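Bumping my old thread because nobody answered last time. Still need a sequence for this structure:
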């Protein structure tokens, strides 16, 4: 699709930490693996894993524990971590959607704003299905579509292309430092969801969607 002039600027949403709080489940699964390998993994260390691909997370985890892995062990541990993660999110439902996310998506949908998901997760589609948000999105780009992880802009550039939009017209909602960097690297407007100090590179930062007013959204998409 060729870039065209759209009435409103398209919005791209990260999944983990923006739409649903899955970080706690990723943490439990990584912690279980770390403990199995004989070391501790703290919640503070888990912060480093936000927005980071599964493979890179395991590399960082093994660095923390000073554990060497053969390629076979590496693949097995990635698989085991994911199986544990999937068991934690098995019963996930719409009650786990973060506050005012649906209100925001409904407002944008009513205005006919093109919406995309731009996530590093290979589990993005099943999660969106579980929380019943799949129908909101015109395009989904996830960890199965990209070769380069955030802060590389690839995931967001593919999302823009799928919506037929110019990158500079897109708006990205992100909770991870790597994700804000990816949005900035793509030349998009970055909206940080979380701590203002941590996400200081973002164009705007809000603690969560309850802090984003309709007036702000209205101005943003023009
Ligand atoms: C990101 C999360 O969205 O997806 C990371 O913030 C996670 O913590 C990454 O490692 C990959 O997720 P998955 O589901 O493919 O293991
Ligand atoms: Mg995230």
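Sorry it took so long. Here it is:
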């Amino acid at each position: 699709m060729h870039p065209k002039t759209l009435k409103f600027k398209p919005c791209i949403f990260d999944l983990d930490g923006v739409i649903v709080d899955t970080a706690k489940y990723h943490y439990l699964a990584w912690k279980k693996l770390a403990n199995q390998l004989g070391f501790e993994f703290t919640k503070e260390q888990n912060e480093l894993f936000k927005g980071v691909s599964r493979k890179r997370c395991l590399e960082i985890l093994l660095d923390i524990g000073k554990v060497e892995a053969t390629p076979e062990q590496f693949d097995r541990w990635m698989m085991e971590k994911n199986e544990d993660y999937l068991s934690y999110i098995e019963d996930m439902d719409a009650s786990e959607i973060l506050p005012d996310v649906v209100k925001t998506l409904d407002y944008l949908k009513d205005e006919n704003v093109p919406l995309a998901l731009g996530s590093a997760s290979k589990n993005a589609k099943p999660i969106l299905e579980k929380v019943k948000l799949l129908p909101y999105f015109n395009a989904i780009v996830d960890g199965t579509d990209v070769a380069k992880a955030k802060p590389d802009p690839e995931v967001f550039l593919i999302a823009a292309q799928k919506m037929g939009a110019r990158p500079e017209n897109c708006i990205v909602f992100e909770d991870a430092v790597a994700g804000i960097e990816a949005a900035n690297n793509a030349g998009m407007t970055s909206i940080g969801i979380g701590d203002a100090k941590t996400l200081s590179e973002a164009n705007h930062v809000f603690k969560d969607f309850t802090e984003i007013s309709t007036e702000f959204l209205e101005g943003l998409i023009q």
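The mean pLDDT is 96. Let me know if any region looks off to you.
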